[in-house]
Amino acid sequence: MAKVTIYTTRFCPYCVRAKQLLSSKGVDFEEIPVDGRNDLRSDLLARTGQRTVPQIWVGDTHVGGCDELMNLERRAQLDVMLAS
């Protein structure tokens, strides 16, 4: 299974929703909380052009945020990405 990394904050409902989807699929993921961490927010900006969370990677592929993750699931492409 591909490594999944998700940048989050504590009170973000989209972060919670994305983590729930991944957990429901039995996916272990690395969660990187960015609460109060301007250095990590700057890292996100450099890597994605955005400072918003969640930001999700499956392997080396930047998926985007919660909406993009849910779209992958609706199109039955998330399992394919996770399996690679």
Automatic annotation (TrEMBL):
Domain GST N-terminal, chain residue ranges per copy: 2-84
Pfam families in the record: Glutaredoxin (PF00462)
CDD domains xrefs: GRX_GRXb_1_3_like (cd03418)
Entry GO MF terms: glutathione disulfide oxidoreductase activity
Keywords (A to Z) from UniProt: Cytoplasm, Disulfide bond, Electron transport, Redox-active center, Transport
InterPro entries, per database record: GLR_AS, Glutaredoxin, Glutaredoxin_subgr, Glutathione_S-Trfase_N, GRX_bact, Thioredoxin-like_sf
GO biological process: cell redox homeostasis; cellular response to oxidative stress
Gene Ontology cellular component annotations, sorted alphabetically: cytoplasm
Physiological role: Has a glutathione-disulfide oxidoreductase activity in the presence of NADPH and glutathione reductase. Reduces low molecular weight disulfides and proteins.
Record-stated family: Belongs to the glutaredoxin family.
Matching PANTHER family: GLUTAREDOXIN 2, GLUTAREDOXIN-1-RELATED
Name assigned to this protein: Glutaredoxin
Organism: Zhongshania marina
